């Protein structure tokens, strides 16, 4: 079933499916219902990082160096976990400035320089073309392998094969056509490609599924699980070295270099920049991608080692290339369906990379290489053309075809020289050269165009000399002499042992020297002169990207331009209709009128420039806008002044916000304090009102009786005596009320005097009962005492406890039924103290009143006779006394069956510990 | 016919003094010790005037006043509120509920008599 027609049909069907998804994604984008506005799709699109290099090459590398394939995935994982803020800042900058590519990014940062953009483009193209070649090689060699089915034939590709007969040439053409359809389908040449991203996300799923399917097949089909593979390994001693942590000959330097290199690659590879930064829909997606993308990398790597070991053991001595194990293992077991799935998975990995990379590169070639040249040399010709959007797309399509053909040529010429992984690493090292200019540009204001140019050039040259040229030499293109003898026979210039540095692998070697040259030149040249106007402006835009600020560019523009001129300019690149819509929208939002004579304000000029930047890159956009506007150049002093003002303004506004927040907080606090005060006031008011009421009531009787006596001198003697007696008892009540109020206030405020000493509670109770015996005798009540001897002493204040007992006893007496009253006082021993209970057989207290009676002035009894003797303060005072002594006072009662008041007091020892030395037992020695 | 007055107050001594005062002036006096009793006695005995204390058990003076005023049969009954809480809000609340007069404790017996006579139209 694996004949050519089937393969072609399956491939075309799959590509058709991708196209359908892309078409759907674009359609949804046009309708404003973005299909890719999802963190998961964003993370999956980032997995375009995994190319055929991962799909086939990881196993190849694992077959040589064990877990040496891992660092290339550890780097991205580290970046996502720890360096996501760099990505976030890049996203902010790109969105604010409508940056279209990594070349545009660097060019924009250093004053919108055409030269820089061009250099970055050239480096990227030179660095990436081998990588594209790698994908072509992988796809075509898998096709060749499958066509040999059921045999597994490792065919060395014949160099004499004609281009017309070469299957990879057609693959390159198909991919070019496909990329054109994906990337430049729209007539408007904007930077976003939603459909492409949706298709890429799907490809990521397909390649993951395919790889895991092979992994499961090998691990659990061919062998009996991970353990089984490692057991079989025992019979292959030559493979043992693959399972050690870091195989000899690779070294920690190599690991470190690979981790750094891949960390930079995942940020700065054009395709990664495209999907992670340019195509980002919503920066909050970064949060999920920060763990989902590393998880993806983990999943796609789980089965790498088992497949590698399985393949090595299975094909031992058969000379099967380890890079093909993923495909050849299923083939060897006649698993045709699985083999086809693997092929499609590999196709996904390859096409995904090629499509995104080529789109990103073609944008760079168009905006940063071709357009600047056209603008320079054919300015007049361009000016005559009314609509250039067609030209833009044409350039991009041409660039796509050219890049893929370059890839094909490289594949034809050098493809056999190196294993897959080596080509990938050469590309990684090339794009790593962008790191100083980009990271420096985002965090250091001092970087200049000259510095960036010098750094990039130096890094690029060293990279070419230490990595690219040796790879050419190894391919037999160049005489190998300079490898062994150094350039011009100077030994210090040997490319793989530059200046005598040896003992590390060539990637680490290249990384060391290229970064030394790159960073040294970047910083050194930047420090030669202070930034110029354009550089300083862009430095602020980039370095302060994470701060909340308006478009700084608009502040820094002074000149005259007509709205109609700007709109016509934009229209030439984006199409008149789109320009019309965009301008109308902007003017509606920010005010201003369309028309021939209207002067554009700085904001509109900035808007027009950013629209253009999205289509032709920021440097060209700058040139084009300058061509229609009369601009007044600002001096560096003016720029610095304005920037300074802007930053001061930001500082002021932050300060103002902070102050305002503080003010709000203070207001809130004040309000709360006021509420607390009002609450206190209300409580005080209530108490005052209660006290007043309690004072006025006896005063009322006293006044009334006094006036009656005064007005009627001839009043009967019995009445006179009765009234005078009532006056006296009411004054007693008043006195008691005043004393108790003051007493309670003292206890509550903590100013009461306490004379703590060890005392015998039994004695206190007996004394209190004796003092109240008259009350009970009057009511003819029986008092029953149950007071055991020899109970432990407690710590307390004798007078206060007598006060509590008197209160409870007189309360009981008050409510006893006349004639049949019974009161029982019990002293008992608890685990940690003593308990006293006073039980009466009065009417009892309703459950809802049982807490109320401990509140001030709350008398619940309604007997008219008993009322005058109570102040409503006795129980609240008693409770506070007991609580102060470390105990508890409460009531238990069933209405109709009497009430029991109980209180507890802790033992002397415990309480002494709690009270400390302030209340000396010795002080009350004489008071007993 | 002698005017009939109900004293509703839970303070025994206050009741004793006012009762003595009013009887001496020739009024017929009834006594109630709480709000519910007061309401029952007004309905049963139809006094011409009620001296109504505010802070009473079971039912406070305001509630009694409101109950009396919502009964059309009792609209002729005069109500004089007596309270030991002399705040303005208390006074206006009592008058708002339909009391005819308001006196703050302690009061002068002369003023009380004058107010009683005024309310009874004497």
From TrEMBL, chain B:
Domain Response regulatory, chain residue ranges per copy: 4-120
GO annotation terms (biological process): phosphorelay signal transduction system
A Pfam cross-reference name: Response_reg
InterPro entries tied to this protein: Bact_response_regulator (IPR050595), CheY-like_superfamily (IPR011006), Sig_transdc_resp-reg_receiver (IPR001789)
Modified residues (4-aspartylphosphate): 53
Entry GO MF terms: DNA binding
Keywords: DNA-binding, Phosphoprotein, Transcription, Transcription regulation, Two-component regulatory system
Official protein name in the record: Alkaline phosphatase synthesis transcriptional regulatory protein PhoP
Originating species: Candidatus Accumulibacter adjunctus
Phylogenetic classification of the source organism: Bacteria, Pseudomonadati, Pseudomonadota, Betaproteobacteria, Candidatus Accumulibacter
């Amino acid at each position: 079933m694996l004949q050519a027609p089937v393969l072609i049909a399956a491939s075309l069907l799959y590509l058709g499916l991708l196209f359908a998804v892309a078409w759907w994604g674009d359609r949804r984008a046009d309708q404003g219902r973005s299909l890719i506005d999802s963190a998961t799709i964003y993370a999956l699109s980032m997995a375009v990082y995994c190319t055929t290099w991962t799909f086939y090459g990881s196993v190849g590398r694992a077959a040589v160096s064990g877990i040496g394939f891992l660092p290339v995935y550890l780097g991205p994982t580290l970046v996502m976990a720890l360096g996501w803020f760099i990505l976030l800042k890049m996203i902010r900058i790109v969105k604010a400035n409508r940056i279209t590519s990594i070349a545009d990014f660097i060019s924009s940062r250093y004053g919108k320089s055409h030269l820089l953009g061009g250099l970055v483009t050239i480096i990227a193209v030179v660095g990436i073309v081998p990588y594209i070649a790698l994908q072509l090689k992988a796809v075509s060699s898998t096709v060749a392998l499958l066509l040999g089915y059921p045999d597994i034939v490792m065919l060395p590709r014949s160099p004499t094969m004609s281009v017309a007969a070469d299957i990879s040439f057609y693959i390159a053409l198909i991919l070019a056509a496909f990329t054109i359809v994906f990337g430049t389908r729209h007539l408007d040449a904007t930077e976003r490609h939603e459909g492409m991203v949706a298709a890429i996300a799907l490809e990521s799923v397909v390649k993951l599924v395919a790889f895991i399917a092979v992994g499961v097949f090998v691990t659990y089909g061919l062998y009996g699980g991970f353990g089984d593979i490692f057991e079989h390994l025992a019979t292959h001693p030559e493979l043992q070295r693959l399972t050690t942590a870091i195989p000899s000959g690779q070294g920690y330097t190599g690991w470190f270099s690979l981790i750094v290199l891949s960390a930079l690659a995942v940020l700065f590879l054009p395709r990664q920049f495209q999907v992670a930064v340019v195509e980002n829909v919503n920066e909050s997606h970064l949060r999920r991608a920060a763990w989902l993308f590393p998880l993806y990398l983990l999943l796609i790597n789980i089965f790498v080692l088992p497949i590698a070991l399985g393949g090595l053991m299975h094909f031992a001595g058969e000379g099967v290339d380890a890079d093909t194990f993923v495909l050849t293992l299923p083939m060897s077991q006649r698993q045709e369906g699985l083999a086809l799935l693997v092929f499609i998975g590999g196709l996904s990995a390859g096409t995904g990379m090629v499509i995104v990379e080529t789109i990103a590169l073609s944008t760079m070639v168009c905006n940063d290489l071709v357009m600047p040249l056209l603008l320079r040399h054919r300015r007049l010709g361009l000016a005559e053309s009314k609509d250039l959007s067609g030209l833009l797309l044409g350039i991009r399509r041409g660039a796509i075809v050219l890049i893929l053909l370059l890839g094909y040529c490289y594949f034809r010429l050098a493809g056999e020289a190196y294993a897959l992984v080596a080509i990938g690493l050469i590309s990684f090292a090339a794009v790593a050269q962008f790191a100083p200019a980009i990271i420096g540009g985002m965090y250091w204001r001092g970087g200049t165009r000259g510095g960036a140019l010098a750094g990039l050039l130096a890094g690029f040259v060293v990279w070419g000399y230490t990595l690219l040229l040796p790879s050419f030499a190894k391919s037999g293109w160049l005489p190998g002499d300079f490898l062994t003898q150094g350039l011009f026979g100077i030994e210090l210039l040997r490319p793989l042992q530059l200046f005598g540095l040896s003992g590390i692998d060539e990637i680490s070697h290249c990384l060391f020297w290229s970064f030394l040259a790159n960073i040294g030149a970047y910083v050194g040249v930047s420090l030669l002169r202070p930034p110029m106007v354009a550089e300083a402006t862009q430095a602020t835009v980039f370095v302060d990207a994470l701060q909340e600020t308006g478009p700084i560019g608009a502040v820094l523009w002074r000149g005259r331009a007509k709205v109609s001129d700007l709109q016509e300019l934009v229209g030439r690149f984006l199409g008149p209709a789109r320009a019309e819509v965009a301008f109308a929208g902007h003017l509606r939002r920010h005010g201003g009128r369309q028309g021939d004579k209207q002067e554009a304000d700085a904001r509109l000029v900035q808007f027009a420039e950013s629209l253009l930047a999205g289509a032709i890159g920021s440097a060209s956009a700058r040139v084009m806008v300058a061509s229609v506007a009369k601009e007044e150049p600002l001096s560096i002093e003016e720029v610095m002044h304005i920037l300074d003002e802007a930053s001061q303004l930001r500082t002021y506004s932050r300060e103002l916000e902070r102050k305002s927040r503080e003010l709000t907080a203070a207001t809130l606090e004040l309000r709360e304090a006021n509420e607390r005060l009002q609450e206190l006031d209300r409580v005080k008011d209530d108490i005052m009102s209660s006290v007043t009421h309690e004072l006025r009531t006896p005063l009322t009787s006293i006044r009334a009786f006094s006036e009656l006596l005064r007005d009627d001198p001839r009043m009967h003697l019995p009445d006179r005596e009765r009234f005078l007696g009532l006056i006296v008892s009411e004054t007693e009540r008043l006195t008691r009320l005043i004393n108790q109020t003051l007493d309670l206030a003292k206890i509550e405020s903590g100013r009461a005097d306490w004379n703590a000493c060890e005392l015998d509670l039994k004695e206190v109770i007996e004394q209190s009962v004796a003092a109240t015996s008259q009350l009970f005798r009057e009511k003819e009540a029986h008092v029953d005492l149950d007071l055991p001897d020899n109970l432990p002493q407690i710590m307390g204040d004798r007078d206060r406890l007598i006060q509590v007992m008197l209160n409870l006893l007189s309360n009981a007496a008050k409510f006893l039924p006349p004639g049949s009253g019974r009161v029982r006082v019990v002293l008992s021993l608890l685990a940690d103290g003593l308990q006293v209970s006073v039980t009466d057989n009065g009417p009892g207290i309703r459950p809802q009143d049982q807490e109320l009676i401990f509140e001030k002035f709350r008398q619940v009894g309604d007997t008219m006779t008993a009322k005058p003797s109570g102040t409503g303060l006795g129980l609240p005072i008693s409770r506070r006394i007991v609580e102060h002594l470390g105990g508890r006072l409460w009531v238990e009662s069933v209405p109709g069956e009497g009430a029991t008041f109980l209180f507890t007091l802790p033992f002397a020892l415990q309480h002494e510990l709690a009270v400390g030395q302030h209340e000396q037992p010795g002080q009350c020695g004489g008071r007993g | 016919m002698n005017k009939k007055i109900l004293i509703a107050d839970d303070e025994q001594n206050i009741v004793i003094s006012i009762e003595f005062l009013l009887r001496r002036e020739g009024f017929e006096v009834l006594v109630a010790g709480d709000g519910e009793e007061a309401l029952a006695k007004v309905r049963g005995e139809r006094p011409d005037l009620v001296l109504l204390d505010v802070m009473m058990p079971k039912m406070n003076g305001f509630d009694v006043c409101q109950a009396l005023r919502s009964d059309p049969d009792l609209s002729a009954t005069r109500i004089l509120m007596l309270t030991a809480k002399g705040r303005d809000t208390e006074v206006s609340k009592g008058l708002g509920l339909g009391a005819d007069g308001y006196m703050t404790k302690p009061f002068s017996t002369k003023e009380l008599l004058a107010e009683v006579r005024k309310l009874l139209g004497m």
